[in-house]
3-deoxy-manno-octulosonate cytidylyltransferase (Chryseobacterium tagetis), 240 residues
Amino acid sequence: MKIIAVIPARYEASRFPAKLMQMLGEKTVITTTYQNVVETGLFDEVFVATDSEIIFDEIVQNGGNAVMTGQHETGSDRIAEAVQNIDCDIVINVQGDEPFLKLEPLQQLIEVFHNDDNQEISLASLKIKLTEKEEIENPNNVKVITDNNGFALYFSRSVIPFHREISYKVDYFKHIGVYAFRKHALIQFSKLEMKPLEISEKIECIRYLEYGMKIKLIETNFIGVGIDTPEDLEKARKLI
């Protein structure tokens, strides 16, 4: 299989505009993310897909690959435009604001498709267990519940599942926004209109569920820093 990685990058993020151009040490957030993905050595190609000339120039001037796209509501739609004429089988979507992604979780996502003999999986992604009440209740953390085979049942910014039976211990999982798509499923996704649940939650992978596609979730111990707020940026700077 030919496997590529694409990093969707939007300059005007609603919660933290220009966050991808903030400095982490001596590099910007987006350059740090790009270079870390390249250094895994897992991909035939890595490039940034953006509608911002500022981000495009940042990547190219630092020796990277970038492509300009139109404006899109979701990162997946942006990637679909970027890869439609590229010969590949699997597309890994790495969020531009996840600069500390490591080799192992990316390998886990790729392995899903090597083991999917019936090619029933449209999308694979990551989840990590949440233990702190504050993190579980934080709407910036997208929670996910799965069936016994690890396929997603639903994603929400609310606390799911609701813990009504307090005598029974329940686990909570955060969805980590790293996706691995079959290319044809990604292209199909981009042609489907948003449905009410996706619009309400503002979680793009709900669109797959609303149209009956299968999403495989892999549990990981990877702890990164997704940069959604200025406070997250300070955490990332301390980690650097």
